[in-house]
Amino acid sequence: MRLVQVALASVNAKVGAVHANTARAVALARRMAADGVTVGVLPEQVLGGYAQEDLVQWQRFVEAQWEALQRFAEQTAEARTVFVVGVTVAHEGLRFNCAAVVAGGRVLGLVPKEKLPTYNVFYEGRTFTPGAAGMEALHRGVPLGDLVFEFDFGVLGTEVCEDLWSPEGPLRRRTFAGAELVVNLSASPFRVGVHGSRRELVSQRAADCQVTLAYANLVGANDGLVFDGGGFLNQNGKMVLEATRFREGYAAAVVDLDRTARLRGEATTWRNDRVESMAKGTPVRRVAVEGFTTERAGLRYPVPAHGSFFLPPPEVHVAGGARGAFCEELLEALSLGVGDYFEKTGGFRCIGLALSGGRDSLLALLVAHRYAQRVRPEAPGTLLQAFYMPSRYSSSHTRAAAESICRELGVPFEVVEIDAAFERELEATRAMLKGQPVTALTEQNIQARLRGQRMWNWSNSSGGLFLQTGNMSERAVGYTTVGGDLEGALSVIANLPKTVVNYLLAYLQEQTGSEGIRQVLARPAGPELAPNQSGEAELMPFPVLDACFYLFAAEKLAPDEVREVVGQMFPELGEVTVAAHVEKFTRLFTRSIYKWVQAPLTLHVGNLDLDRERALQLPVVMGNEWMEEG
Question: What was the pLDDT predicted at 630?
Answer without folding.
Answer: 61
